[in-house]
């Protein structure tokens, strides 16, 4: 859900509208301004989340101390889990860039660049929130020609650059196409401000995977230290005399040979007796 | 000369291949981390120096970086197994590997069904059955239930009429009817378990049992409920000529009037004070012994379960001895508590305490 604060200005409203356009049809944009402060009082956010059954939110506001403020956050069980406040330094809207856009509802590709995203806990949570926010619905198959949209996040010099590009697939001689990018969509330069991260145990609780979803171990498959995979097949006892092997037509017993053999055997028996 | 041209051709072909590959390869110091289920790529490399220097207008640099990273991601995606759906080429995505917090809490485990509770209490465990059973008729090993099962009595072409049955009765129809009733009863129990799990109101179907065999009390209750379910709560429903007033349909709790019988009230209050003052506890023998026996059963069942779990984990075999441990002693007991002397396993203080208190013998419901 995308909420406007009591004193949202034009920039912030534009940002929220653009994000709503990105996240259609799964987003809810609240038209009226709500006079709340997420970092002080979380009850109104939780109430909204219960009413609209959304767990991710984006709250925009503006005041002298924190100009062009954007709070991105998520909830667990209708209680606030994480909230990160970002300041918008530069914003280029969807409307400003005049070229053809992607259809809405496409699953975007997400790329995070910069080693900052793994260094601090704040950045790691931010990455996790951004993935949660911008990834589309989980699908098992995807049409390769339908991969059109890329969101690129770069952490550089304390700022986070958010750019969105449209993908152009060019011929490259082999099966995998060559990529050319065309900038569309919103571009944001963000600065990390305050954070309100969940306590460790609440976070652990929210990460719990139910037993049914855990991947099951496959039986009868084992791996070597060298990387070889071994499988085990269980079979019933085989009668080796009846085993079907290659038939060499040349070695087949001909009737003439057969009779001579019989005679020989008979002779042997007579001899013994 | 020809040899030379062949060599030249080969070299040229190699060069072309390298060209093609160069168009899609990107050189990076550290490999990217991919999560293809989410179409995600993470680049751990520190941003190139050109970008850091740019500062105010890093657009071109960012774009180049983005192009490189996207190329790598697309390369990975194109390596996935594909299939043709309709006219489109579709790649099969793996499961997403990034662990993200859930939106709602994990669903609670379902409450145990009535049978499961009972089995847990008594320590009954399911008997392990073999997969195949010997079928005499066909002379081979067949599965225990399902298609072409071992002892299939639906395929019998001859059923003997039992001695006490009506000779004109259709035994085949009787068998099918019995099966239908069993299925319906099973379904009813399953729905009841479900409703208990969700604590929902059962659509009661007016209290009627699906098999049609109900006890007199159940029918009576169903009839009462039906009578009261009118707009005027059953006030204007006539009764049949010989119908008796329903039993047990009054108020469930009876309260004494606020003031009335002063003598009785005085007696009750004095009795209460006396019981509170007395140092010795009042004990109800029957209830105590039953409770004790129940607790012991539960403990044994819990112990057996723990042993079997430990046995499974360690791979050791408990053997049948483990199961039988609690069996014989519990059979020899009677459920109704008598004098304390008979129960030698009960607590020693039980005997002889039959003072005061309410002593209600007979059947108890726990």
Automatic annotation (TrEMBL), chain A:
Subcellular locations according to the entry: Nucleus, Nucleolus
Bias (Basic and acidic residues): 254-267
Any single GO BP term: ribosomal large subunit assembly
Segments of skewed composition (Basic residues): 244-253
Keyword Nucleotide-binding in record: no
Region (Disordered): 244-273
InterPro entries, A to Z: Brix (IPR007109), Rpf2 (IPR039770)
Segments traversing the membrane: none
Cellular compartments per GO CC: nucleolus
Family: Belongs to the RPF2 family.
Protein name: Ribosome production factor 2 homolog
Species assigned in the record: Carlito syrichta (Philippine tarsier)
UniProtKB/TrEMBL annotation, chain B:
Family under the similarity heading: Belongs to the RRS1 family.
Biased composition (Basic residues): 303-337, 352-366
Region described as Disordered: spans on this chain: 203-255, 273-366
An example Gene Ontology biological process: ribosomal large subunit biogenesis
Function comment: Involved in ribosomal large subunit assembly.
Basic and acidic residues: bias regions: 236-246
The protein's name: Ribosome biogenesis regulatory protein
Biased composition (Gly residues): 338-351
A cellular component annotation (GO) from this entry: preribosome, large subunit precursor
Keywords annotated in UniProt: Nucleus, Ribosome biogenesis
Protein localization: Nucleus
InterPro entries: Ribosom_reg (IPR007023)
